[in-house]
Amino acid sequence: MFYLVIGYVSLFFQGLIITLLFNQLNVISLQRKFIMLLSISMCFTYGWWGCLIYTIIFSMIITHLSQKKIPILLSMFYVSYLLVSTTIIYQLLDNVLALIEGNYTVMIMFELIILPWVVFYLQTSLLYYFKRYLVYFANHILAKYRFQAAILDVTLLSYIYLRFSDLPNRLLIASVILVVIAAYIYCITLYSQKQAIKLAQAEQLQNLIEYTAQIEELYDKLRHFKHDYKNILLSLEYCLDNDDLAGAKKVYHQAIAPTRSIISPELQLICQLQNISDPALKGILSNKLALALAKKLSVTCEIAQKITLDPRVTQLDMVRLLSIFMDNAIEAACQVNKGCLDFAFFEHDNEQFIVIRNSTKYEKIELQLLDKVGYTTKNSQGHGYGLANVSAILRDYPFISLNTSSSHYIFQQELIITGGDQDEHCYFRR
């Protein structure tokens, strides 16, 4: 009975380690009651079926708590990887008990006190260096390729069967399998990141080219305006000197007013974008805002202060986020007669705010459905993955929060980056 209790306590600590490690991945923030529940559930892992059921139940709870933002196959990958790696470390360290066999007091202290802390420390240290590869691999690769996720889940879970088999050197085999999987995750993640960077750089270059072309076009317009400026002023001066009010009005309406309407929208956007220091962000915003103007949307852009991208956020991820938000906003606004698009980027109270607001054809959008993979309000196929990708990106940045609201035919996305530079505020103006 005594050894049975010790066995249950040891299983509880193993479950606690796996749950705490899962919490460290920042995939989902677990409350204390769920940490305890998932830790206690480890006590029911008897043999192959017990471990399998534990993995499935753990994964289902995580998927449920995340409101299905995390697919079940993705949850199983995280859990099974942590379960296998933790169990292997436990088994390796358990061999130390052979050196102190006979001293039951020391053995119990080692099993219940020292061993869990050592395992947790080792796993935390490994996770510190491997976490970003693991999370990126899961969110950006496995989330897209469910078949690959299923194969990896089966491969990892096969260790559980291997653990309870009579196969010689099963620990060595399991360790080799885990190392091979870890190496695969590392290599494929590096390759995927390099490809994503190449694609992003090509897009950024194209955006900068278009941005430069816009500036040159505006400069050409201003140059022609400057050329005619003297003649316009002379005509206006002549009319005023001769008290020809009708002639002055004619000069204004025919020569001055049309030039203002042509130059003003683009010039306003270009002037606002000058306050963004990052050329890639400037390029993508210029591209999207110019696209919105080309689609006859009412566009406002508010960047009234100098903005430097928070160094904790990669340029690639921010470009991807802005691209998704702006594309969705433009498409939604185009479905509305006289649609509008508002963009603001400002800093206030040590936080950076990015606000994108657009008109919609729906009075109110059901926000709880937006994060579901494949959900879309558009009629065409192939949409609905943008905001799910946003969720995947933001999992890497716990200091970034996303506030979404929808009411009165207006949809708004607000990104808040805590820890930015302090400065003044900026608001939308109509």
Report on this model:
The chain folds into two domains: 2-165, no CATH class; 196-418, 2-Layer Sandwich (Heat Shock Protein 90). It starts with a helix and ends in a 12-residue tail after the last strand. Strands 1-2-3-5-4 form a five-stranded mixed β-sheet. The chain is built from eleven helices and five strands; from the N terminus they run αααααααααβαββαββ. The protein is 65% helix and 9% strand. By secondary structure, the protein is of the alpha+beta class. Helix 9 (279-294) packs parallel to helix 10. The model is unreliable at 372-377, 379-385 and 420-430 (pLDDT under 50).
Describe the secondary structure blueprint for this structure.
Layout: H1 2-24, H2 32-41, H3 47-65, H4 72-94, H5 104-142, H6 146-163, H7 170-241, H8 245-273, H9 279-294, E1 298-302, H10 315-334, E2 340-348, E3 351-359, H11 386-394, E4 400-407, E5 410-418
Helix pairs in contact: 1-2, 1-4, 1-5, 3-4, 3-6, 4-5, 4-6, 4-7, 5-7, 6-7, 7-8, 7-9, 8-9, 9-10, 10-11
Average pLDDT taken over every residue: 77
By DSSP (H or I, 4+ residues per run), the number of helices equals: 11
**CATH level 1 class label of the largest domain:** Alpha Beta
String of helices and strands:
HHHHHHHHHEHEEHEE
- Determine the structural class based on helices, strands and strand pairing: alpha+beta
Looking at the structure, what is the overall shape? elongated
CATH H-tier superfamily of the largest domain: Histidine kinase-like ATPase, C-terminal domain
Task: Tell me the domain tally.
Answer: 2
Low-confidence stretches: 372-377, 379-385, 420-430
Q: Order the strands across the largest sheet as they lie in space.
A: 1-2-3-5-4
Report strand %.
5-15%
- Gross CATH architecture of the largest domain: 2-Layer Sandwich
Number of DSSP-assigned strands: 5
- The CATH topology of the largest domain corresponds to Heat Shock Protein 90
How many angstroms separate the termini? 75 Å
